[in-house]
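Support reply, case 0932

Customer input (verbatim):
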Amino acid sequence: MASIRTVVFDLDGTLVDTAPDLINALNFVLDREGLPPVPLHSARNMIGAGARRLIERGLELEGRAASVADITRLTDDFIAYYADHIADVSRPFEGLEDALDRLGSSGYRFAVCTNKLEWLSKLLLDRLGLSARFSAICGADTFGISKPDPGILQQTVACAGGHISSAIMVGDAGPDIGVARRAGVPVIGVGFGYTEVPIADLNPDRLINHMNELPAAVESLMI
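Our regenerated output:
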């Protein structure tokens, strides 16, 4: 029997435009520290390495250093606020659900592999009515490892009931390209996400600029 074909997605900047709610949560904790807000347009590319690193980078913009204990406190405050506002503005990228419908009708199975915490990822997808589309939703805390460690992708695929030899990664930034390369999996880059290095410069196997291009890109790689 042929292996189940699995398409694995990053979450922030790939499936869902989460930047407004994430930056609002960042600005909430910065304001409590007496610091000015970070503009959304300049902060989008700070997203992708988890809440703790987002806060560290927000402080770095203001030239502020903080102790490990302070970063932990701010991260806890950030997560509490973010969980309450996780889908105030965040929405799936245009064309996502149609692309999933088209791939699903061809027998593909879907999973999420993100450096976001698992419970926050599930909460977000629940609020957006998307959770049922995914056979596995795995975060940085699910296995105790995060992208680009190949183990998180390998174990996510296994949780979805697939095999790594019949999987494709879809993401918007370096950790997604890196985890796919290390796991020996083809990777599709999306040009509408959050990355300091242009995704094209990271040489994904395919590059799409709208979700309506996803089914053809997946079919071209899944030989």
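We compared this against your earlier run and they match. Two observations from our side: The mean pLDDT is 93. The two ends are 16 Å apart (CA to CA). Please reopen the case if you see a mismatch on your end.
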